[in-house]
Amino acid sequence: MDAAVARRAWTLYEPIHALTYFAPEVTAAWVDAGVRGFWRGYFAGRAAPLGGAPAEVVTATFFGFAPTMVARAIPSIWSLIPPEQALAVRVAGAVAALDAVLGPVGGRSGDDTAAAGSEAEAADLLQAAAEAATGEGRALAAANAAVRWPDGVRARSWHAATVLREHRGDGHVAACVAADLTGLEANVLAAAAGPLPAERFQQVRGWTAEEWAAAAETLADRDLVGPGGAALTPAGVELRAQIEAATDRAALRPWRALGAQAVARLDALLVPLVARIVTAEVIPDPNPIGVPRPT
pTM for this structure? Predict the structure, then answer.
């Protein structure tokens, strides 16, 4: 099975997960739980599967965030909400966001048996793929896979998408580390590739202007970016391509385990659902997490 299958699958499951970071229903769920401020909810939800791990571990596994930014939320967030409760809040918020975009399971009327069956089938196939996403060397994927599967079609779909995207993300981090990139340098390289401005990357990842400039200078010394990190050099383009190819290869195992026929069926089931998520325009394009548009 070609590694392009893994990239194609990513374009379909990533938007299901990524609603977590942009939908107002998710923000409302955190506020209702007593967690105010977007980044508090972000770190509480994404770090909760790690079971209250210290800031150093969260920084290492999340990879691209400034340690000072992580330290503003971890571990103090656990005095507001324990990890077990944060797990429940993030699922509830994700399901509310999916319901808002997709309507009732089975269609807008809620009584379309065929549509409900198709969505349930997609959840089953996503879960099967997620359960085949082995956690060796992948701390975030393993932590999310260890969480009890939630009840409900959309909750299962979202959790499966989360396991799969963290599995892919862990592989991407490994590819960046193998390319001798720090989390900050990987951000500078991504910003140089466009289309999102470097200032936006720097802001949402918590790096200072001085830290960003120093990383850009390091990459320029390696002939990966031009002066100031404004654009990739040919060597930078090649390195980025190598990292993405390595990421795709490392993400292939769940889809190879699922098999070509099931992968094709899942693709057909997810395309109309994800099209509705994309056209709802809840997830901005472009965005800092690189959520792709399926083709």
Answer: 0.95
Query: Is 163 exposed, middle or buried (CB count within 10 Å of its CB: 0-12, 13-18, 19+)?
Result: buried
Cis previous bond, 227, omega within 30: no
Residue 162 tokens read as 């989360």
In the chain, domain spans: 4-177+244-270, 179-232
**Which residues have C-beta within 8 Å of that of residue 258, sequence separation ≥ 6?**
125, 128, 129, 132, 266
- Write the pLDDT tens digit of every residue in 16-47: 999 999 999 999 999 999 999 999 999 999 99
Residues in CB range of 213: below 8 A, 6 or more apart = 228, 229
Condensed to tens digits (0 to 9), the pLDDT of residues 212-248 reads 999 999 999 999 999 989 899 999 999 999 999 999 9
Question: CB pairs under 8 A, 24+ apart, for 81-87?
Answer: 81/33, 81/34, 81/35, 81/44, 82/52, 83/47, 83/48, 83/49, 83/50, 83/51, 83/52, 84/48, 85/33, 86/33, 86/35, 86/44, 86/45, 86/48, 87/45, 87/48, 87/49, 87/147
